[in-house]
Amino acid sequence: MIKQLTGFQSTGNLHLGNLLGAMRPLVEAQATADSIAMIADLHALTVEHDPAAVRANTLEVATLLLAAGVDPRRTALIANSQIPEHTELHYLLECVTGFGEAARMIQFKEKSASGAVRLSLLTYPVLMAADILVHGAEHVPVGNDQGQHLELARTIALRFNARYGETFTVPAGIRPESAARVMDLSDPTRKMSKSAPSPAGRIGLLDPPDRIRKTISRAVTDTIGVVRHDPEKQPGVTNLLEILAACTDEKPTGLTSYGALKREVTDAVVALLAPIQARFTELADDPGFVHQTLAEGKARVRPAALATVRRTRAAIGLLD
Ligand code: ATP
Ligand code: MG
């Protein structure tokens, strides 16, 4: 079975884009892949954060992944901070990565444009490489936003193997067939994002139906007035059509007004999220289960992670 790793930063509330673009494909792949679902809580420390909020977010993301159908019997659910081999490999990989390689990452440039920048923000793509390489992941589903970071992980793996001997599996970035790219509802030229400053364009997976209705009713459309799939001229309407198609697994037909489209999208999103929210509420009552699941995920993946680190240490010149 192909080894696959999907990562989620615990930087904020998961949204419809995360569900349709990453969580659902992960759940579907469970039948055919040996999957790891990783919460990147270490990555949440690269920017100013509230410790209690990070802890709460990590648990919330874990709980939502389980509520959305991640089956801990098939998928190892882990947090990268709980497996010390991630940070150990991170350091070793820093020793084969150029300063310039990290500094030219687009996301670093964007996020470092304002304010005080932590060193960890610069080296975070190297930690991401460690997250992937430590488990020997062969496939890494990534959206466009992570393409450059995945390329760096591949470069680091190839370089290390060439310089110090065959040590790492070189990962391939994949785009799952069922993945949808969900755009921001208030600015359909940008993707829906946890870290967007305004929540107006985002549907949180835990948003109540009323809030979802409100967010969708305010979604930006256009003045053309015809419901048509046209990403260039009608990005807002196209985004709504794509959300509807992804939620219902059908091509939408027979919609004649934006009002009708928004009502259909609202109903479809509310129906998709209802069972996830119900399961979330059940699981949230039993945080012990989520902690236990993370501990089991760690126990499952740790032997392979330890072996990778041991191999890397030996190859690069460290004592046992
Ligand atoms: P942040 O703004 O903090 O980067 P994010 O919303 O981009 O948050 P991530 O944790 O970076 O979320 O990504 C988790 C997974 O969800 C990744 O696989 C990513 O490609 C996917 N994803 C994120 N946003 C979208 C979106 N709008 N549509 C589809 N998939 C998305
Ligand atoms: Mg992102």
Automatic annotation (TrEMBL):
It holds the Pfam family tRNA-synt_1b. GO terms for cellular component: cytosol. Keywords: Aminoacyl-tRNA synthetase, ATP-binding, Ligase, Nucleotide-binding, Protein biosynthesis. Residues 186-207 are annotated as: Disordered. One of its GO terms (biological process) is tryptophanyl-tRNA aminoacylation. Its EC number is 6.1.1.2. GO terms for molecular function: ATP binding; tryptophan-tRNA ligase activity. Belongs to the class-I aminoacyl-tRNA synthetase family. This is Tryptophan--tRNA ligase. It comes from Paractinoplanes ferrugineus. The lineage of its organism: Bacteria, Bacillati, Actinomycetota, Actinomycetes, Micromonosporales.
